[in-house]
């Protein structure tokens, strides 16, 4: 009651019968008096019997007193004066689809009034109003389960079996060491293993934790959908998270409904509620029988305006999503292949470690090992503690070999390179929705792209207008008959999903809708002088058929109020509309018969405009006798407009880049064949020099789908342009190309593109023009709708694959060298030159720092000069085998010489020799990290100044190595080296560079290296006859 007193309605009541009030005003005041009295009585009841009524306040239907004379709108009062609304009851009605409950509240209009929403102007758009609504009704967000913390990943790292065995060994070594040497000296061996294992765990946990946070950020960006709402009488795009109760939201085909709401206005609306109910049948939504619209469902046909009544956690979708924890542990095809590689290497490492364990135990118990020039084992004379301690040390060394052999850095490298590339791709206008797309894009052999908005700017402008067979110029529009103009106003102003908003300043109106709709409305308003509001007021829209990709036109049935006549209007692809016409209008208003001569002339006009790369839209009209439906034949052509949509800057260069990269570009468009060819030549998809191949390169959708299966498979690779295509034609082409063994990327923006986007190896949806259905079906969202960004994604895809191959080459070099050295030394000398702590340190710099350094290399233009990677091509190529085997053999040779002859060559004791081996081995990996940057190019330093992270990691590795050798002597089991010894280690390691340089002159066979071991006969086969690759339907 407090809110009402502010407006001094008592004075209003006293003057109910004042003669100065007109009839309409008196009627409003009587209505207000009735509502006011009812509220006063209800408040008295609450005061008298407060305990007997439902404590939940009922939804108030009090309306602000409206002045009929001054046209004040329903949301003219600030939100602070909104009566109490039982939001919980409204939510219950929505969730239960309680139509009776809605009617009891005064229908959709009653709910809108209670929420202080003006159906034609929306809510106030100022920050204060929006924040008040958010405070009252909640925000359009849902509670997500808390993300996994760092401790979770630490716990996960502890689950590793090898880590647990190492910890057990460290515990035993610590216990026996302290018992044997006292706490001051005895903790070194066990404690150093503990510290090394701790470092491995922490680095692994931090990497995984960082990755989780990265995916969480990308998930938020992916979910931030743009929604079109009505505020202050203007249509504007806002984030889905900023939608509030009371908002009027515009919905069209392909949109995801952002909140729960009620149908305000619209036509032919059909909704797919399968995401909530599991039912595949589409549900019809209207004002009368089913006005309920639910968050998370999708519009499949028609368009509408929706009144938002509940948001966020008040919706069923919000409750469902809050209970789902999005898992970022998606396994990509490459990760699966790497798991197999890791498993194979792990088994080899386990075998080697088992042999080393057996050899060392046998040598120990047979008395063939010495410690401080004394035999370690003397039968029963040796204390039990000493025996156990020695056995633990031997087991720890064997287990550490397993740790080094198992390349757990491979999954980490994939994770790091994918995370890095995803982050960088965001800045390059590409948002990755599915991890696998990052790597798969690098293998793409064909890109099927849309024309409008992808190759072109999607900035439409009407540049030509033909009325019948007459070309109408801008300065001659006044010659057009008023009757024809009136019909054109109806055809554009009523048969549209766009709108016109007059600005307060009275300058140029604002147009909203699709680029085509905006261009047509702009032309009709600014050039033909249409007043859209006047047109709407003079007509009632009875039926609407929204634009259909099969018919390629939209229609509307209207009733003219002045004479109660019914008119059908169609608008769409010029040749499609022309085929339904039997007559045409002239500029004087007369109607002429559309005979074959006239039809041929108009077809020639359409072809002429299309050849100038104009999109042709035709308007047709018919007076309907009964107004029962949208008649589709016997129409009268009103006019044809040509819309210019220029090519995007840089698109021809991007197409040329893709061609050089061995990727074929195919343009699939709904435009007619002449427009499609003109744009294809302009973009470089078709070449003027290939006139002979032009007939096979350009087809229409109907022609393609009517081919036999054999013809289609035979011709599909030659096709460069498919015009007048439907989404089913696009899907058919994708299937054919995949059956031919191609890796196919497809761009799409419409709801009907979803099947093709899903069928393709990589689905690329458009971020601006793309519907939510298309985005959900895609793997990557191109944020700026630009084909240049598609070429950038191709480059990043190749970069991901290339970076992972670099790391595999680097890691396998270390694996092979470490395993061979330790095995030979253990078998021949009975000891391993690299201790457990030293091997764990090598493992750390190799797995974590190495992965970080090599996985973050940025893409280069050189990547686009290579052929695409085939589906069945080996992950470890012959070039990689050549590089890693040469480097491994060099390291093995050098370190074995140091192991057996180092003491005599350098005239140093055993401790210095062991330190020299350790130091040389680590420095070899540092120098080889440079070699790994380029697998085929001889200059490995090119562009290194741009990768500061690589330089930083190399510097950190060297600093830590110096600390390990010079300052952590007891911890790392090393001794200090003098300058000459450091220089020797660096000189030996630096020879990796010239060896790597000359290695790249060695030619390699095309036959995969490992196939020689599977099939020895292939050794004698010529590499000129590569084996046929069987087309696969899915990635390996």
TrEMBL record:
PANTHER family: CALCIUM-TRANSPORTING ATPASE 12, PLASMA MEMBRANE-TYPE, CATION TRANSPORTING ATPASE
Cation-transporting P-type ATPase N-terminal domain location: 104-178
Recorded topology in the membrane: Multi-pass membrane protein
Protein family: Belongs to the cation transport ATPase (P-type) (TC 3.A.3) family. Type IIB subfamily.
UniProt keyword Cell division present: no
Protein name, as recorded: Calcium-transporting ATPase
Keyword hit for Repressor: no
Known catalytic reactions: Ca(2+)(in) + ATP + H2O = Ca(2+)(out) + ADP + phosphate + H(+)
Enzyme Commission code: 7.2.2.10
Subcellular location: Membrane
MF annotations from Gene Ontology: ATP binding; calmodulin binding; metal ion binding; P-type calcium transporter activity
EC category name: translocase
Primary localization class, coarse: membrane
Spans through the membrane: 161-178, 190-209, 345-365, 394-420, 812-830, 836-855, 949-968, 980-1002
GO cellular component, one term: membrane
Biological role stated in the UniProt entry: Catalyzes the hydrolysis of ATP coupled with the transport of calcium. This magnesium-dependent enzyme catalyzes the hydrolysis of ATP coupled with the translocation of calcium from the cytosol out of the cell or into organelles.
Keywords associated with the record: Acetylation, ATP-binding, Calcium, Calcium transport, Calmodulin-binding, Ion transport, Magnesium, Membrane, Metal-binding, Nucleotide-binding, Translocase, Transmembrane, Transmembrane helix, Transport
Cross-referenced InterPro entries: ATPase_P-typ_cation-transptr_C (IPR006068), ATPase_P-typ_cation-transptr_N (IPR004014), ATPase_P-typ_cyto_dom_N (IPR023299), ATPase_P-typ_P_site (IPR018303), ATPase_P-typ_TM_dom_sf (IPR023298), ATPase_P-typ_transduc_dom_A_sf (IPR008250), ATPase_P-type_domA (IPR059000), HAD-like_sf (IPR036412)
